[in-house]
Automatic annotation (TrEMBL):
Protein name stated in the entry: Protein VAC14 homolog
Record's keyword terms, sorted: Membrane, Repeat
GO terms, biological process: phosphatidylinositol biosynthetic process
Family, as annotated: Belongs to the VAC14 family.
Gene: 106090217
SUPFAM superfamilies in the record: ARM repeat
Subcellular location per the Swiss-Prot or TrEMBL entry: Endomembrane system
Origin species: Stomoxys calcitrans (Stable fly)
Function text: Scaffold protein component of the PI(3,5)P2 regulatory complex which regulates both the synthesis and turnover of phosphatidylinositol 3,5-bisphosphate (PtdIns(3,5)P2). Pentamerizes into a star-shaped structure and nucleates the assembly of the complex. The pentamer binds a single copy each of PIKFYVE and FIG4 and coordinates both PIKfyve kinase activity and FIG4 phosphatase activity, being required to maintain normal levels of phosphatidylinositol 3-phosphate (PtdIns(3)P) and phosphatidylinositol 5-phosphate (PtdIns(5)P).
The Vacuolar protein 14 C-terminal Fig4-binding domain, residue ranges: 449-631
């Protein structure tokens, strides 16, 4: 009677299911010999029957020992078949795969051992089962039993050798979903397993893993946060290999999808992830050039916050971000493809990001943002003209604590005004200057500390970058027509006058005002005068500068009706000190000049004596007194002919200007009286 396990004998079947390993081993050797004989006679029926018995009656048995026997028997069958095992690979592999998930650790280990022997002889025939093998091994590498782990590692190495040598038959497209599924597993053993497969496949010349990089790069970057240094090292090495492949041939990479992933990881809080992502962005900008322009706003989001890093461990990140910033600026300003660049740049999203980082805490970041805005204004003035909110955003930056930020901001604001002015006529377009400076005046009026600490720097820099004459004309008109707060008007005039008289940036404007006989200079003087009258000493100063000495004498006489305050005396003191500076060297020489029949010299001497009489006997008094003692004693011996004076030649109606001075000073006096009355009422009520 035939054995129920035929073609196995009863004794062989019994030994194969024995709990003693040596007996199972002897049975497997008998099976191997049997298979060799069957195969030699080409008896496929008996071979399949044997495999069926081993699979169903042993490997699938509820008895653990029988399952162990089935596994060693299937391995022996494969060894007996040798290269012909490829004909039966499906029947051999499937039952072993099922045992890889067995609850007993020893059976999982024997399954690894059995499958190793099958794979060793089947070689490339095993490739169709690779997805199932990969999935099973991804579980086994994290097994709680060390023997199972060791067995899975041996099997994994064998599989890698086979895939490498049979790469032409490997279905990479089917493998990628398996990688994507397991690449986000947080177990360190699984991560190490996944990275090793990616690295191996990327090293095979016939396999182009770069094509599928977008599917796995997010997971690779996520793995960089693993606390295991070995995994970090493996991941960094793998990413470096990919980057090297892209440098050699970038045609396969899906750049648009990949750069978005890189931008996301560049914003990670993890230092290694951030550094690696920005390094990749730097390389992508070099490799893909202008193709990166549509992603400019995202790149800004990635690099701009990194510019603030100053600590040593973040230095490399900052240097990389700076390099990306410079490369992007070169791409944007490229004249070779300017039209194409304009089309690729999404200025709205770019400006949205730049505006967001204008309020960043870092000085370096804000400076970079302002440099970019300035760069865009220069290269794309027409397209940037639609950024209507830009000016308001920039005005808020002028109160920044950093001088560097403020100066950069002024440069941008000046460029905006210049770009608007260039669209108009060649003549001075008041509207563009006035709109901008009116906003600036409003800022000065709202914040006294801003006026005291920042106004001088802002105005001086604007005079360098824009037309100083236009700046002063616009300020004067705004003060005369728009400013209702007389105290603020006086403060602003005093500031503008101080800058005018002392700043090297305004040398040309001072020279223009001195040439008072020139119609243009006369008009400039009249416009400034109408506002300068808010501050009596500033009015005298500008008249001295413009050589209208006769009018100074008339103004000094009016000081009898002006309240002489400590503030006014301090201003007179500063004026006397200014007269001794190089700026007023020509004024001092006028005192000894016989030009214009000595008219200007005598009017000036009279004016200075008047100022001397207003001063208390301080150092300033003695300084001016000493200066006036140097005047030749022949002055005043003959009557003055006003027609010989420079003031007369200017053809300015000084009578009207004098009346305007009286009117404005009357308004100041009335406002001071009104404020004192209100203050008195408040005190009495209290």
């Amino acid at each position: 009677m035939e054995s129920q396990y035929a073609p196995l004998s009863e004794s062989c079947a019994k030994a194969l299911g024995d709990k003693v390993y040596d007996k199972r081993k002897l049975a497997s050797q008998e099976i191997e010999k049997m298979v060799v004989e069957f195969n030699a006679k080409n008896n496929t029926a008996q071979i399949r029957k044997l495999i069926d018995v081993l699979s169903n009656d042993f490997a699938s048995s509820r008895d653990a020992n029988k399952r162990k026997g089935g596994l060693i028997g299937l391995a022996a069958t494969s060894l007996g078949l040798g290269k012909d095992s490829s004909k039966y690979v499906n029947e051999l592999v499937q039952p072993i795969l099922n045992c890889l998930s067995d609850q007993e650790a020893r059976i999982r280990y024997f399954a690894c051992e059995s499958l190793y022997n099958v794979v060793k002889v089947a070689r490339s025939s095993i490739i169709p089962f690779f997805p199932d093998l990969f999935s099973a091994l991804s579980r086994l590498v994290a097994d709680s039993d060390q023997m199972v782990k060791d067995g899975s590692e041996l099997l994994d190495r064998m599989l890698k050798d086979i895939v490498t040598e049979s790469s032409n038959n490997f279905n990479l497209e089917a493998f990628i979903p398996l990688l994507k599924e397991r690449i986000y597993v947080k177990n360190s053993f699984v991560r190490q397993y996944v990275i090793s497969w990616i690295s191996i496949l990327n090293a095979v010349p016939e396999i182009n893993m770069v094509t599928y990089l977008t599917d796995i790069i997010d997971g690779l970057f996520t793995m960089l946060e693993d606390n295991t240094q070995e995994i970090q090292r493996m991941c960094e090495t793998t990413l470096t290999q990919f980057l090297k492949s892209i440098r050699n041939d970038s045609s396969s990479v899906r750049m648009e999808d990949t750069i978005n992933i890189l931008i996301t990881h560049a914003q990670s809080q993890n230092e290694l992830i951030k550094a690696t992502a920005i390094t990749w962005i730097r390389e992508f900008v070099i490799i893909f050039g202008s193709k990166m322009l549509p992603h400019t706003s995202g790149i800004f989001t990635a690099i701009l916050p990194c510019l603030e890093y100053n600590v040593d461990n973040m230095k490399n990140i900052k240097e990389c971000a700076v390099a990306v910033n410079k490369s992007m600026m070169r791409l944007v300003s490229s004249k070779e493809h300017k039209t194409q660049n304009i089309e690729q740049l999404d200025l709205r999203s770019i400006m949205a990001v730049l505006s967001q980082y204008l309020s960043h805490d870092s000085v370096q970041t804000k400076v970079a943002v302002l440099e970019w805005i300035h760069h865009l204004l220069i290269h794309f003035p027409n397209e940037m003209s639609h950024q209507t909110q830009l000016g308001n955003n920039l005005l808020n930056i002028l109160s920044d604590n950093s001088d560097e930020v403020v100066l950069k901001c002024i440069s941008v604001l000046a460029e905006i005004v210049n770009s608007q002015h260039s669209k108009g006529t060649a003549d001075f377009n008041k509207a563009h200057y006035r709109k901008f400076l009116l906003s600036l005046v409003n800022l000065f009026s709202e914040d006294k500390s801003f006026l005291d600490n920042r106004a001088s720097l802002i105005i001086r820099q604007l005079c360098v970058l824009l037309n100083a004459e236009y700046i002063y004309l616009s300020f004067a008109e705004i003060i005369a027509e728009e400013v209702t707060n007389l105290k603020f008007a006086s403060l602003l005039v005093r500031l503008l006058n101080s800058i005018l008289l002392t700043s090297s940036e305004l040398f040309e404007l001072r020279t223009t005002l001195r040439d008072i006989s020139n119609p243009n200079s006369a008009n400039l003087f009249k416009t400034l005068y109408l506002s300068w009258v808010h501050c009596p000493v500033s009015t005298i100063s500008i008249c001295l500068l413009s050589q209208n000495y006769q009018h100074v004498s008339e103004l000094v006489n009016l000081f009898a009706d002006i309240e002489i305050t400590l503030e006014l005396l301090n201003e007179l003191d500063k004026l006397v000190q200014l007269i001794e500076t190089p700026i007023f060297a020509s004024l001092r020489l006028t005192l000894v000049s016989k030009a214009n029949n000595c008219a200007d010299a005598q009017y000036l001497a009279h004016a200075l004596f008047g100022i001397l009489m207003l001063l208390p006997q301080t150092d300033a008094f003695n300084m001016l007194k000493n200066r006036l003692q140097c005047i030749p004693n022949y002055w005043g011996q003959q009557p003055i002919n006003e027609q010989h004076s420079l003031q007369y030649k200017s053809k300015i109606n000084f009578s009207e200007l004098l009346e305007h001075f009286k009117k404005v000073q009357k308004n100041h006096r009335e406002q001071r009286l009104s404020q004192r009355k209100r203050s008195s009422v408040i005190v009495n009520d209290v």
